[in-house]
# Entry
Amino acid sequence: MPRVRCGLAVVLLILCSSPPAQAAFPELRGPYFGQPLPGATAEIFAPDVISVTGRYEYALGFSPDGQRFLLTVQDGEDVYLVESRIMDGAWTEPARVDLTGGTRADEMEAFFAPDGERVFFAPYDEGLDVRIWQVPVTEEGFGEAAPLAGPAADDPAFFPTCTADGMIYYTNLAQRGVYRARPDSSGHWQAEPAEVEFGGHCFITPDGRTMLLDARADDTLGKGDIYAAFSTADGGWTRPVNLGAGINSEYGESCPSLSSDGRFLFFSRYDEEGEVSQIYWADAMVVAEKRAEVLGDESLIVQRIVTDSMAWALTKDRALLESIIAHDEDYFSFHPDGLEGTRGYAQFEQGFRIWMDDRFETTITAVRDFRCTFSRSGDVAWFSTVVDDCYTWGGQPGCWKDTRWTGVLEKRDGDWVITQMHFSFAAEN
# Structure
């Protein structure tokens, strides 16, 4: 069986190795396997836990709620998917999953759809006869997998990721480029070129406005780099831009993806002896900053700040939240459970007595359907979104599910801060 390397081309590797001995799996709690969060410079993700020395790892994907995880692993000639999930507050040891029930020899590159109801992946047989399949996600595991029908299945293809409105983006091996496809009324997936200038292994964001790709170009720092392309007003894409030295290196980088909340960038770096790949991660703000640099559009930066105003609680990064909220008496927020609201930063700050208490634990923060509008001056932004904000208090669960959330940000001394927020639940009939 040929070995599959994640890169712009599928290649056959002739070096084989036995999987290294593994110690007992540690108890890991919190998001991202309880790892310290990275900054702007990429770091190895979960060393000796997910990134195992001497083993290929690539194509990492989290479920929308951040509670499940899929990864492609390559041991010798064996290529397969592993899954881990949070059970009783801790991550389970990654275990092999067989989504096709043995009907295909190897499986790779699995990603959750933004609604969490399906996984798209790329199984294959001898000779790299690779096509895109989908499988329903169940509470127990996965349902019955099936290949896509229609023109999207005509050519060998892999690395499928999906937008919130159901469009998949993938690498078409026969055409050597990024394609996209959507099912018609009969369930046949109609395919077309994505019309991005270059790159492969495209990861599309749920809103369909940002692509992450790997490529070799004139400005590549090593043997392949991570790039980003952004949607334009005419429906096209910008030329992919290199994400820079904080992400890329003298080695090859490939297979980019984002965490479910969009805060962190994951990719493979072939920096082990024999060009074996490990998973690296970094703060994804670099992507938002590139969009602002290329298009003058700060919407991704605003989206990140709004997301951080919830996601800070996953790791109780109080300094992060304090940097986001306006420190004045004009700050105001409405919550669904009362009409008084929070008036002024001093009153807002009192919430830390609960949020930082050991009995309080945030479990899920999922922000979706984000929209943002800017004032003509460019220093005021209005947003709307929907959030799931779930937690436990003393072990008892609670959740703001499908909560409508609107607010206002102002740009002060070059930094965006939130000045008003309004949370509400839909009325029941």
